[in-house]
Amino acid sequence: MGNLKDYLAEAKHKKYQLGTFDCYTFTNDCWEILYGRKWSEEFLNAYSSEGDWATVKSDKGWKSLEEAIDAFLSRCSKPLYGNLVTLDNPTSKPFGKSMGICLGQFSVFVSHRGITYIPTNLTEYSWNNHVTSSV
C-alpha cells in the first residue's frame, strides 16, 4: 500500500462515502500501512447506512463507538504517533464521533471536506497497536 504520506496525499482527493470511504475504512487503511494489518476487518463492507451501523452496534451490545474500538484495541492514556484517536463530532454520522490517526502534534481525520488535520490535544481517546481480542 506504500507509505502513510503518499496515502494521505492520495486520500485527500477521495470523496467521503459511508461504508466505502469513511473514518472506519480510512483508519483501517492507515493502520495497515503503519502496522501491516487492519485494526478491525470485521465490519469492512458490512454497512452503508446509519441503520446498518445501528444494527451492528445492537447485535454486539456496544453502547458507544469507544466500546466497539475497545473490543479490538487497548486504550491508552496519551495519544502517540500511530495511535487510533477519536474526536467528539456531533455532526459525524452515524457515530457522533470521528476516528482518526495521531501523527504527533496533529491527528488526521476524513470528513465530507476531505482529509482534515486537528490538533491532537483536542482528541478524546486513543488506542495503541496492542490487540485486545478479535470479536
Structural description of this entry:
The protein is an alpha+beta fold and 135 residues long. It has one domain: Alpha-Beta Complex (endopeptidase fold (from Nostoc punctiforme)). The chain is 28% helix and 24% strand. It has four helices and six strands; from the N terminus they run ααααββββββ. The chain has helices at 4-11, 23-35, 50-60, 65-70, and strands at residues 73-76, 84-88, 97-102, 106-111, 114-119, 126-131. It has a six-stranded antiparallel β-sheet. The protein is globular. The model has no long low-confidence stretch (mean pLDDT 86).
Name some characteristics of this structure:
4 helices; endopeptidase fold (from Nostoc punctiforme); globular; alpha+beta; single chain; 135 residues
Write a short abstract of this structure.
The chain has 135 residues and is of the alpha+beta class.
Largest sheet: 6 strands, antiparallel
The fold-level CATH name is endopeptidase fold (from Nostoc punctiforme)
Strand segment count = 6
Q: What is the gyration radius calculated from CA atoms? A: 14 Å
Secondary structure blueprint with pairings:
Elements: H1 4-11, H2 23-35, H3 50-60, H4 65-70, E1 73-76, E2 84-88, E3 97-102, E4 106-111, E5 114-119, E6 126-131
Antiparallel strand pairs: 1-6, 2-3, 2-6, 3-4, 4-5
